[in-house]
Amino acid sequence: MKRVASSLAVACALGLTATACSDSTAGGTGAAPTGSVDATASLKGVHLTMWVAQNSVAEPKQVIDAFQKATGATVTTQVIPDPYESNVPTKLASGDKPDLMFWQPTGSTLPFVQPEKNLLQLDNEDWVGKLGKTEQGLGQVGGHRYAAIVTSPATLGVYYNKDVFKKAGITKMPTSYADLLATARTVRAKAGVAPFFEVGGDKWPLQWQVQLQLTDLPQSFWDKLNKNQAKWTDPVVVNAIKKYKSQVLDGGLAQKNYKTATFVDQGKALLDGSAAMAVNVTSLQSEIQATSSTAEMDRKLGWFPVSNSSDKALYSPDQTNGVVAFNTGDDKRQTAARQFLSF
User: Per-residue pLDDT tens for 254-300?
Assistant: First the structure.
């Protein structure tokens, strides 16, 4: 499995390097709380607010419902408009704080919310030791844990409609980005539907076909990028963007309304077969599951991994992988937030 620096998704959207949002003057929250919390202890009368992105609004619903039933607490979600990763720091800078929040738990993105100043340290929580090896490496800044890892890191791949592939006579899955484009042209010629469904309306999914092309870059490139020793304007990045635009968007391999289509539209088009493929991370699966059954998804959809030169998958942590708890100054709400993370 290949991995690129997780700053890619955010920096592509914001035009920022990973170090641009650090704040060495931020104050600390003190030591991490000690002692475990009872995840189901009564919280009657306690109200918590959780910030979520537009594409993750439905994801915590089941856990929230179960937590409220078990504890008597009230948890309200508040949607922060896209681009989430830039609007959240702006909202925090205005003095507004939630109790809980979905946030990408990487060393490049976690600093955006000034964890030393704003978040509760979670070093001593009883669930920390239960994290797997990959998850242990996420959610930390400066040697302290600030995020609970609640899902596996998002995996980038291609979702496809089985009936459309059958109609196009496709039986072998692509093993490179060049193969993927060739498959798309076969779909256009033989199935008569849009090969790819692209999401310009929500913007952030436009990054994924570019990321597929960058998967062969060595880790040293991402290290240099995060140190301002490499740039987003370097030819290797610019050429990937140009290829995506010329061959997919301008090359007739995307649906006609790709400039305004939404993430929700993408899932619907994939299910009904008006588009053959969607390049996206695991969050697309979660979005489709919100309006369809597992049986329907299994019947209609397939998935395959692909990178620039192989059939391996890339994983890239996103904001649904981590939940952080804020230092609000209200002990009762902070304890309740820790209970939620433990729950």
Answer: 999 999 999 999 999 999 999 999 999 988 988 898 889 999 999 99
Distance CA 214, CA 50 (A): 34
pLDDT at 55: 78
Per the DSSP assignment, residues forming a β-bridge with 144 are 141
Within 10 angstroms of residue 94's Cβ, the number of other Cβ atoms is 8
Query: Which tens digits make up the pLDDT trace of 26-46?
Result: 334 567 787 789 999 999 999
The reply to whether 215 and 148 lie within a common domain is no
Cα separation, 57 vs 146, in Å, equals 22
- Mark whether 137 and 247 lie in a shared domain: no
From the number of C-beta atoms within 10 Å of its C-beta (0-12, 13-18, 19+), residue 228 rates as exposed
The answer to whether 74 and 44 have CB atoms below 8 angstroms apart is: no
Burial 7-30 (b: 16+ CB within 10 A, else e): bbbbbbbbebbbeebeeeeeeebe
Same domain, 181 and 235: yes
Co-location of 203 and 331 in the same domain: no
The CATH number of the domain holding residue 304 is 3.40.190.10
Q: Looking at residue 57, what is its pLDDT?
A: 87
User: Count of domains in the chain?
Assistant: 2
Residue 230 lies in a domain: yes
Percent pLDDT > 70 in the chain is 91
**The predicted structure's pLDDT at residue 7:** 34
Residue 114 vs residue 14, higher pLDDT:
114
- Number of C-beta neighbours around residue 242 at 10 A: 12
Q: What pTM, to 2 d.p., does this model score?
A: 0.69
Measured between alpha carbons, how far is 154 from 315 in angstroms, rounded to an integer? 5
The residue segments making up the domain with residue 305 are 155-315
Report which of 19, 45, 53, 262 is spatially closest to residue 154, judged by C-alpha positions: 53
